[in-house]
Amino acid sequence: FRRVLFRSDLNRAGTPLVEIVSQPDLRTPAEARRYLEELRLLLTYLEVSDCNMQEGSLRCDANVNLHIHTDDGHKIATPIVEVKNLNSFRNVELALEYEEKRQLEQWQKTGQKIGDVAKETRGFDAARGVTFAQRGKEEASDYRYFPDPDLTPVIVSEAYLDEVRQSLCEFPADRRKRLAGAWQLSPYDVGVIVGQGRDFADYFEEVAGLCHDGKQACNWVTQDVLREMNERGQTIREFPLRGAVLGNLLNRITQKQITIKSAREVFATLLSETHAGQVLSSQHIDQIIAEKGLALVTDTGAIDSAIAEVLAKNPKMVADFKGGKQGAIGPLVGQVMKAVKGADPAAVRNLIAEKIGQM
User: Fold this and answer.
1) pLDDT digit string (tens) for 301-316?
2) Which H/E stretch holds residue 136?
């Protein structure tokens, strides 16, 4: 007797499968990749899936053929090829770029057009950047479809569809448009914010609403916050500096209570004093500003005194600036800012330029 072992892989049992078939109106490999990126973003916003391609949560099969316009005004469609199981959007783009060249060369050699040969299934070798033939595409009869008596038709009413639509979140494309208009942000800025996911976009909106400056909030969230998140390996939900805290900190810039430089020092201090699992509150902000003497200095006497001292110590820089070298004022501003912590750098720059002009 021979023992025969059968192994059943049930790791996907009970996991629903959704197949999304797009209309055949994607014209370039780059457009196909952008479509998939937007689709993944939409699915994650709706919390349908985490869309992790490496773990198999999302897969892509790409159907591709060419429409060749001949010199005599005819349009010829090449045979359709389906490239299977592409596991990254970059590979989708690369596979389609390769197929574009391969199908053109194939048509130039054979003249075959759609319908002359069976639809072909190909794989993609990412290491070599080429597709390879796998098999001819089966027709419906080859799949041996048969009706299942236990599966009844699912009929959805318009009323139910409307109810579901009303429960959905704001779609990424709509959110980009709204944020751009509400806060006068560039397409790039709103793309970064919305592209990081719903929680990140919610975080930005909380910060912007509290500091009343969309561009300021965007700069901090997409640069400082995102950098710290990546370095710490955290999501925005895990990030200890909540939107309310950052919004209140940036509002102090808007209200001209502290400078941007001082705000960055407060930001760094807040994060450095954070313990595992601790969530910071806005009460820490005033304490740090007071302890470090970061409040905006409005004492013009102290600033004037520091400027006079810095100009006296740096006659060459003064001469260079008077001679037209605008960059020479930068080190002078830095020295004054170091002497008078909390001074407004823009005001200091203007005062220095005025003082030098009077010399």
Assistant:
1) 777 787 888 888 888 8
2) strand 130-136
